[in-house]
User: Which sequence fits this backbone?
């Protein structure tokens, strides 16, 4: 063989592991370069530990409502440390499993930072390896606005997962996926939470119904929502707590921790992309075509680094399709991103697929789009003190009423959405949903009975 490997992936996260797995299944000799832990962001400091914390928060909410269902509970307390310990043991098992799985597939794991020497050569920890095909899948890291004075006093989502004791009072800065997810976990588990956002509603870009319903629910849950708050400075004061000061002089005091959740940047510096002539975009992404080709003959990029939706299943699908195109004669397999379902594990969760109402009206013309909505209190809260609303919206287009967007906020949205995403992917009409017999009693039945 001319090269050491048929394919090397730089980055052993969702994208990198999926491309080497599929390529190895087709008999190709592969290696994956990983500087930290196999599994990448999702497994170690993303989806998986987040979902464990979300389950913990879910249990806290069930305990809160238990007396209304007749339970006489004597809960002695909650141990954050125990939950974190259990979570990390679980994750360690996944890391170990990945190691064994790579070995079984015959994939070499090259531990260390990978950098390009030339288009076919990677250097890892002082050693050089060559490959016919190289796939860049380095993902990203949480961003911190360096220009903010005292910014380093704040944690990021990585720091959140490193917390072994529960802070009493936190400020979460941001209003995207990570901000609402972490704020919800803290709040449900008993931390006093302030959410500091530059806008009045969370989740910019999502359908307004979701933004309004979730913002209201977060406030009702006890989260202090600080609107139009632009952070100017973080300051450690004499009692050891952190004070956050806004550009217009507001001062919020007494935080044990402050968490930045203001987006992520891709990890490009270690790659030495200049050695292969790949120029990142001004958004810090690597531009790819519909085949995930970078423009350099044998180099591809997949996952978060491409600027495509930063979601694990998108990275996995990109990796698998790339291997299918390269090694299984299926050049037609390309990522279809027109209806990517996504769930935000907030409290309550959000599930959304397709176009928000405002985007659909922009795309198809205001009067060609119709929406159906339903807002109700699910039966689960019929007689509980805490009541959490569910809101649903169907966005349909044209005389046939093709469903181009489904938006759900409320209990069960996380599990409800996947099936409905199939309908949107298949270009279903509203009449197809209506023709489906409802499941009763459920919240999901509203989506097939809307008038
Ligand atoms: C807190 C949080 C929660 C999330 N929750 C969800 C969720 O619920 N659902 C969902 O779908 N998505 C979620 N995501 C997003 C998801 O984790 C990412 O979209 C996904 O991990 C991207 O995969 P990737 O392969 O592009 O990169 P990563 O998974 O980030 O993997 C990249 C790997 O490459 C390594 N690496 C980087 N550069 C080099 C180098 N030069 N040499 C060697 N190794 C290198 C890194 O150490 C890393 O392990 C979450 C993200 C975060 C931060
Ligand atoms: N459930 C999931 O699937 C899930 C969960 C977490 C993360 N993710 C992925 O990871 C990505 C990154 O998440 P994220 O929440 O960090 O980013 P995000 O892009 O979702 O949200 C960042 C938010 O921070 C705000 N912001 C930026 N700078 C700010 C500043 N200086 N002060 C205050 N607010 C500021 C932005 O306006 C934006 O609303 C997501 O876009 C998503 O694709 C997915």
Assistant:
């Amino acid at each position: 063989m001319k090269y050491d490997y048929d394919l090397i992936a730089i980055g052993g996260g969702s994208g990198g592991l999926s491309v080497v797995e599929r390529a190895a299944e087709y008999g190709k000799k592969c290696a994956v370069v990983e500087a930290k832990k196999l599994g990448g962001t999702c497994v170690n400091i993303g989806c998986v530990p987040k979902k464990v914390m979300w389950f913990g928060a879910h249990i806290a909410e069930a305990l809160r409502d238990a007396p209304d269902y007749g339970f006489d509970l004597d809960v002695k307390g909650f141990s954050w440390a125990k939950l974190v310990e259990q979570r990390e043991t679980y994750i360690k098992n996944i890391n170990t499993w990945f190691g064994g799985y790579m070995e079984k597939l015959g994939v070499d794991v090259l531990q260390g930072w990978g950098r390009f020497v030339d288009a076919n050569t990677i250097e890892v920890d002082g050693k050089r390896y060559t490959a016919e095909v190289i796939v860049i899948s380095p993902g990203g890291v949480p961003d911190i606005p360096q220009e903010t004075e005292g910014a380093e006093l704040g944690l990021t989502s990585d720091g959140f997962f490193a917390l072994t004791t529960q802070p009493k009072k936190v400020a979460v800065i941001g209003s995207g996926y990570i901000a609402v997810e972490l704020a919800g976990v803290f709040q449900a588990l008993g931390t006093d939470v302030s959410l500091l956002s530059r806008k009045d509603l969370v989740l910019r870009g999502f359908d307004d119904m979701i933004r309004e319903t979730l913002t209201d629910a977060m406030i009702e849950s006890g989260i202090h929502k600080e609107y139009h708050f632009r952070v100017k400075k973080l300051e450690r004061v004499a009692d050891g707590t952190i004070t956050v000061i806004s550009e217009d002089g507001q001062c919020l005091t007494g935080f044990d921790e402050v968490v930045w959740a203001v987006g992520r940047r891709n990890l490009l510096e270690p790659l030495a992309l200049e050695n292969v002539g790949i120029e990142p975009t001004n958004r810090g992404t690597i531009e790819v075509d519909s085949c995930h080709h970078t423009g350099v003959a044998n180099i591809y990029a997949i996952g978060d680094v491409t600027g495509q939706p930063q979601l694990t299943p998108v990275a996995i699908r990109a990796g698998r399709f790339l291997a299918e195109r390269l090694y299984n004669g299926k050049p037609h397999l390309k990522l279809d991103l027109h209806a990517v379902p996504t769930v935000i594990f907030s409290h309550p969760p959000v599930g959304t697929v397709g176009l928000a109402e405002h985007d659909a009206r922009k795309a198809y013309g205001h009067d060609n789009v119709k929406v159906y909505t339903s807002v109700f209190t699910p039966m689960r809260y019929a007689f509980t003190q805490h009541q959490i609303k569910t809101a649903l919206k169907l966005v349909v287009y044209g005389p046939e009423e093709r469903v181009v967007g489904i938006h759900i906020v409320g209990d069960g949205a996380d599990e409800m959405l996947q099936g409905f995403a199939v309908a949107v992917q298949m270009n279903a009409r509203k009449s197809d949903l209506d023709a489906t017999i409802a499941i009763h009693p459920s919240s999901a039945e509203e989506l097939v009975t809307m008038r």
Summary: DSSP finds eleven helices and 21 strands in the chain.
